[in-house]
Design a protein that fits this description.
This protein has 119 residues and is mainly α. The chain is built from 5 helices and no strands. The protein has 2 domains: 30 residues; 74 residues, Helicase, Ruva Protein, domain 3 (Orthogonal Bundle), CATH 1.10.8.1000.
């Protein structure tokens, strides 16, 4: 046990000033990486997000539904917000699954970027 005011000793004999500096450096790297990711989303990433949300299959012309969903978002100039936000918002508006929403988009029954964003 340690007494109040005394620094605890490391069982691994670590220099805590080095550990603290490593943590600060890692935090800076993570922050800068996230900032880059936030500003550089890509069509490929958003299609992958659609697939992770369970959107699969193709339309009548053999175009993958994730492609159709992302194209719908791109046409509305809102890809930077991300597919997950738009699909989640559509779920709130329609009470449908991501797959059903994608099928509606493919049939021109729904435009993700025309739905007002809900909280």
């Amino acid at each position: 046990m340690t007494e109040i005011g005394k620094q605890s000793e490391s069982k691994l004999n670590l220099d805590f000033s080095v550990v603290r500096k490593a943590r600060e450096t890692a935090k800076k790297i993570a922050f800068e990486t996230q900032k880059f990711i936030d500003h550089h989303t890509t069509t490929t990433i958003e299609r992958t997000v659609c697939r992770l949300l369970g959107i699969d299959d193709m339309d009548e012309f053999d175009v993958p539904l994730p492609n159709i969903v992302v194209d719908n978002i791109k046409k509305g100039n809102r890809l930077g917000i991300g597919a997950a936000i738009h699909i989640g918002n559509a779920i709130l508006h329609t009470n449908r699954t991501p797959q059903e929403i994608a099928e509606m988009i493919a049939k021109d029954e729904l435009n993700l970027t025309e739905l007002p964003l809900k909280d």
